[in-house]
Design a protein that fits this description.
Layout: H1 4-11, H2 14-27, E1 48-57, H3 65-75, E2 90-99, E3 104-113, E4 116-119, E5 123-124, H4 135-147, E6 164-169, E7 174-186, E8 207-214, H5 226-233
Antiparallel strand pairs: 1-2, 2-3, 3-4, 3-5, 6-7, 7-8
Amino acid sequence: MADPDLVWTSHGHPPTAVAALAAVALQLPRNPDGSHLLVVPGVGRLIGAAFRYEAYALISDSTAPAVHEAVRRRSAGGSVPRFRDIPGRIEQRCMTAVDLDGGRYMASSARLDESKPDAAEPDVADPGRDKLTGNVVDATNRFLNAIKPVPKVHTPYPPQVGDLVHLWDAIEQRGGMHEVLARQWLHSSYGLVNWPLLEKQPTVGPLLELIVEPAEGVFRDQAPRPDDEEENRK
């Protein structure tokens, strides 16, 4: 894993760094049970991921003229400087979290005064699937998707190219019929978790990845029966 300090300094923008960490996590091998190496074992089931960070914000009741002008221009759809460069902006400590059920959460606490390290009581946003959006939520969600458990489906009959398979996401409540366009076999690498040193063969079999695209079912060209036509006219 890369040095955290190097990660933050090389990207400069915290959400971009989190997205980069998610991309790295996707490339790491998994344990035989499908859990990710970045998830500490023995501490309970993974339920979500959280990202704590510092940010700058503008408040409408600020006495700073520059803040009033920035708020006005932003409300009108105009461009504004970066918040950190606006005199009178406030510092915030924030935490954004997402869970495996699709929930999104955010809490922030503003510094009371530039000369005081204390912060105001945190403001917690109402949780919801679609209420919270933005690059921080997206990056945190990417990281969670990269490290969440991936149970392997064991089947002696893997789909062939051209087969139709029904795929459904119970969390997003979407999916349907898909056609298999290509297949890719991934075999364990010697010396890693799934093929320990000195073992003659991997502890788990190869993983099959499928490339699919949405497709209609096998009955897409079925002609209606006379009874169906009669029912539709009623």
